[in-house]
Q: What sequence folds into this?
């Protein structure tokens, strides 16, 4: 039994014990429901690519639901594939039997040339490709075939870094005469000022919709300037950007370029860089070398193939600001995936596009 004074104090000071109990019950129930949703809802489960030592945060997470959804472009490519026909000797050659055969393909058998031509017409969305020598698309197409063969043969270290993948016209074009995600020079973006201010502080697609500089693709993928961020020593004598060490302008342009690469491949910074030493080339991941080689590849692609065809293109195909030719960058092929078409081997059926020698390897 409780003392009388305690009973009297309780009666004089009533307390609502039901409200807190209900609140605790509601909160506890919510926690249980949330825990169940997290454990049962597989759309929120993630997988990751480990790019560095465990515990350093060096991983690239992906939702398993996203990993389970194939790039819709894969189905489009698979609808165009066909098996090559191994020559037995004595077959009629395309150079003798067909008109307007692109250079390097004259030695193909008629059967293999016809299957390749049918595929290229589907890949580029140009149903009469190579029918008319006076059509600019014929001359451009000749150049593009040479470019594709060069990429497969001479840039194997990037194109086939993880496994045989290769590139074809479809890798970029996806059924369109002009690939998506090509780019044009839009400098200056601020015509009222000169110098550094003329290329930044405007949100543009080329700066990944930030106010960072919009000339990063031109600077690094055409002009070939080195990528740099800052000097590792403090209070360096001289003027940044002038006395042989980078200034804040170089850092901002670099960040614009890195944002573009990240969005183009659907990865984060530690896909290439070590999270404890972004600047140190001795501590980067293996993907850093693949990406560096890719940057050099795109520089060659733009300067040796795409910019020179600007004189062949009609005005409607040129850049709106400076009348320049459409150029390629990472997203032109990758379309937001770590590997174009999620690593689908697109070259195994088209050995004609894998060599510049004019003598495809059809195997046995």
A:
């Amino acid at each position: 039994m409780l003392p009388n004074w305690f009973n009297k104090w309780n009666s004089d000071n009533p307390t609502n014990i039901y409200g807190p109990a209900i609140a605790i019950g509601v909160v506890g129930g919510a926690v249980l429901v949330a825990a169940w949703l997290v454990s049962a809802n597989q759309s929120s489960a993630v997988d990751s690519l480990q790019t560095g030592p465990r515990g350093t945060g060096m991983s690239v997470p992906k939702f398993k639901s996203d990993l389970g959804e194939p790039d819709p472009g894969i189905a489009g490519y698979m609808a165009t594939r066909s098996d090559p026909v191994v020559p037995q000797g004595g077959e009629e050659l395309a150079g003798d039997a067909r008109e307007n055969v692109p250079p390097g393909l004259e030695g193909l058998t008629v059967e293999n040339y016809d299957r390749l031509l049918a595929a290229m017409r589907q890949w580029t969305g140009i149903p009469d490709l190579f029918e008319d020598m006076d059509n600019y698309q014929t001359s451009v197409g000749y150049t593009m075939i040479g470019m594709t063969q060069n990429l497969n043969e001479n840039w194997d270290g990037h194109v086939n870094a993880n496994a045989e993948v290769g590139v074809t016209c479809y890798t970029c074009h996806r059924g369109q005469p002009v690939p998506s995600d090509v780019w044009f020079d839009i400098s200056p973006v601020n015509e009222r000022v000169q110098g550094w201010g003329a290329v930044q502080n405007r949100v543009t697609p080329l700066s990944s919709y930030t106010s960072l500089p919009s000339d990063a693709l031109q600077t690094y993928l055409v002009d070939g300037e080195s990528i740099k961020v800052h000097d590792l020593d403090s209070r360096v004598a001289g003027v940044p950007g002038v006395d042989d060490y980078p200034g804040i302008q170089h850092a901002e342009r670099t960040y614009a370029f890195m944002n573009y690469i990240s969005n183009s491949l659907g990865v984060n910074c530690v896909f290439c860089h070590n999270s404890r030493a972004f600047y140190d080339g001795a501590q980067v991941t293996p993907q850093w070398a693949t990406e560096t080689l890719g940057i050099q590849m795109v520089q060659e692609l733009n300067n040796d193939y795409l910019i020179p065809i600007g004189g062949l293109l009609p005005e409607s195909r040129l850049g709106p600001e400076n009348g320049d030719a459409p150029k390629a960058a990472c997203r032109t092929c990758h379309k937001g995936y770590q590997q174009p078409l999620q690593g689908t081997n697109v070259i195994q059926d088209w050995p004609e596009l894998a060599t510049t020698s004019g003598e495809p390897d059809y195997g046995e």
In short: Strands lie at 46-50, 59-63.
